[in-house]
Amino acid sequence: MGDVEHNLDRYLAAEQRLNTFFAALDYCFPRCIAVEKRKNGGQPVAACCQNKYYAICDLPHPAFERLRQEREKRFGRPEDHFWADPVSPCSYHNPHNGCLLATHKSPICLAFLCREGIDHLRNRYGIHMYDYLGFYYALEWILTGDLPERDYGEFMAGIAAMTARVKQMDGAPL
Question: Contact 106/113 with Cβ under 8 angstroms?
């Protein structure tokens, strides 16, 4: 397996772990999207998806190109998606269901948690380690191969610890 494939595999493992964390946290829909939809008379909202971040922030690197290829193989090219009532410039943002990308998100999108979400992590769960930009850069470095194996292990363990804490405090099975 080449370095690019190895880096992509590590990235996708981190993405899976972060998706589990965000699912356990269950912050975005109930505390943001649902609230905004009520304020907006039930109309779709873009919430944090305000640009084509994958096109703006992805690096010119072979691993990012592989991520894009795999994303498009699974979810189509951005230009394949057309929404009658778009609320976001991002072609992967379905106005009624949010992001179409269950996997293969760009690091910028995968890492994002708004200020209110980070405050919720700190105030409700006592989790102070989530730093949106720090996670974003770590995910970039995983893809480019610049994050050493030891640091990758610590990153993955940190996500697992945050997930366990959220589940424990919310009474969910670990």
Answer: no
Q: Strand, helix or coil at 99?
A: strand
Other CB atoms within a 10 A radius of the CB of residue 41 amount to 6
Q: What is the pLDDT of residues 41-91, one digit of tens each?
A: 888 887 787 888 888 889 999 999 999 999 999 999 988 988 877 888 888
How far apart (Å, rounded) are the C-alpha atoms in residues 66 and 58?
A: 11
Answer yes or no: is pLDDT of 172 > 80. no
Amino acid at the residue 83:
W
Give 174's pLDDT tier (boundaries 50, 70, 90): low
Contact 92, 30 (CB under 8 A): no
Q: How far is 11 from 13, CA to CA, in rounded Å?
A: 5
Quote the pLDDT of residue 96. 78
Spatial CA neighbour of 40 closest among 102, 89, 85: 85
- Please state the pTM of the whole predicted model: 0.91
30-38 long-range contacts, CB within 8 A, separation 24+ = 31/116, 31/117, 31/120, 32/114, 32/116, 32/117, 33/98
- For tokens 């795999």, the residue is 70
Cα–Cα distances (Å) from 114 to 132, 134, 170, in that order, read 8, 13, 21
Assigned token pair, 23: 């699912």
